[in-house]
Amino acid sequence: MIISVASGKGGTGKTLVATSLALSLANRHPVQLLDCDVEEPNDHIFLSLTVDQSWPVYVAVPEIDESKCTSCGTCSEVCAYNAIAVIKQKVLVFPELCHGCGACSYLCPESAITEGGREIGVVEMGNSGKLELVQGRLLIGELMAPPIIREVKRHIDPTSHVIIDVSPGTSCPVVESISGSDFCLLVTEPTPFGLNDLSLAVEVVRKLRIPCGVIINRVGVGDERVEGYCNEQGIPILLKIPLDRKIATLYSKGIPLVEGMPEWRPVFLELFGEIGRVASVGATRQVGGEGLPTRRVIT
Ligand code: SF4
Ligand code: SF4
Question: Fewest Cβ atoms closer than 10 Å to its Cβ: which of 161, 187, 210, 242?
Fold first, then answer.
């Protein structure tokens, strides 16, 4: 089963949930934790494992053969990302904007464009018992997260349970990360900002037709509006995590919740069971079956 853990905004506790779920399951099953928050991968901080393999990720960028180029401008016209321009008979390439789509080289009438490689980041891998971590890391100053996320996901082991820690927000890296998941956990907090960003994240997962459920973290800081929204939308609230100084202290020290407070381990195992139940009903619903089950809350 592939479960992505996402949030409309940063700082909601997504990493706490992803690492706690992965560590709880890894006592019983092979588990892969994919850290696709490639601008700031930090799951490794919470896991007692060392990275033992890494390899670079490249994207294709156009290289111009000036002896063939006639400055016709076709490459500039077809580039949707403004990554190539023809100015004063000279072709300029802006590699940091290039998405490596290949349109310019394909459509150049003079075959004056070939594709070179540009390193944009790395993928790293490490193991601890039944838990395997695969994480992507963008190089500083690079913007193109999706190719690194694709490379991380290329190493999904279909015999393991897979937990994907998704970057915050609702942009392209989020869509790339959660696509293909069996279920998406949306972690939020009970505040107006949390509600606003949760509603945006729900739109994304619904467009991708992925069943979802909500985890409300830091219960006690805000109000009831997130719960009201979930009830209105028929989205199950699968877990509430209270605002608790001890939980915050563990997190600040890089100690996983389920290791610092082992009483949470069965809670995350129960959460996993609940996800399986909701995901199977959600899948039935998509082909015309019954609706989602009655909401159930683990506290
Ligand atoms: S499309 Fe080819 S020939 Fe035309 S300006 Fe670009 S590189 Fe030069
Ligand atoms: S490969 Fe695609 S994104 Fe890059 S310059 Fe060519 S057309 Fe633009």
Answer: 242
